Predict the 3D structure of the following.
Amino acid sequence: MRQRYDGVVQMVECHYDLRDPFAVSVLPDRTKIQSVLQSRYLPEAIRKSGLFEEYSILLVKEARPTPDKWIEKNAHALANMIRSQRDVFEQNEIGEVLSSRTRYSARELTLIDWEGAIIIAPGEDYQSDIALLKIGNYQLLRYRMLDRSIEDLLDKINESFFQNRRPRATRGLIRQIAEHKLEIMLNFERAEQSLLLIGDWYTAKLYESIHNEFYLKDWKESVRAKLDNLENIVETIQENFVLSFETLMERLQMLGWVLLLIGYLYLYALDAGWIHFP
Amino acid sequence: MEICYLLAFPDSDESGTHPLEQFKGLKDAPYFQPIDIDLVSLGEETLIIKGMPWR
């Protein structure tokens, strides 16, 4: 299933059945299959740039005797599966991977980690939680895209104003930078304000867990700090441009006065008869 | 058991011709629409990779 979010991000959701999730062959097979899916759906330029998000979710219909006990029993294998690793985890690391759990009922549990998740739902009612995980991935990517846009704009400013010996601060270039900055700020606001997942209801609790595990708060703060810096830099450039424009106008005015004075002196000399034309 | 694999990447749509949808079926959802994200479906397909169907 493919969807587009806010006209800026495409989300591909793929499912396949797994007989034994703990088999040794699962990890290499998964890696190969995901690589095939990436080459099918990801444009080459994006694949090379690394500006994309991938996330795996294990969907479990039955976990006996209880979801928590099933997780504890298979803790090591599940931690490896979530982190896509064959290496052996320490006990405390396993605890870290498997710690963030949200329960909808005694038999339904969703475990979130920043690289993968497990949804246990006897009624195979996975879609609500998958939708939230997609939103989390979308937001994470959106922050990364904003971060990249700010970096690109800073590079452009650096190239235009500091790498050239004589900075070419044109009105057009400054307008272009200001417009780009505004676009980034609006995108940031949009990423911020699109969700009202607040409160004690299940979906809000699960979203809070996703928000924490995906470090969305840290991303938001980092992007905000960069945006503030960018704003200061653009303001400084604009002030500088206004100053240099004012200096230019002052010089032109001075030149005008000098020309006027020369003309006046010339007319005075002509009038006094100091200059004679043959 | 099943594996669900998500892949998200930048992909802008200049045309804006697709019909917009809303997120539905959120568990315990309140009376208001809590998610204000423009959602557009781009289709579904089944692929066979390494002999396994991916849908």
Q: What stands out?
A: The interface with chain A takes residues 1-13, 16, 18, 23, 25-30, 32, 34-44, 47, 49-50, 52-55 of chain B (CB under 8 Å). The CA atoms of residues 22 and 36 of chain B lie 8 Å apart.
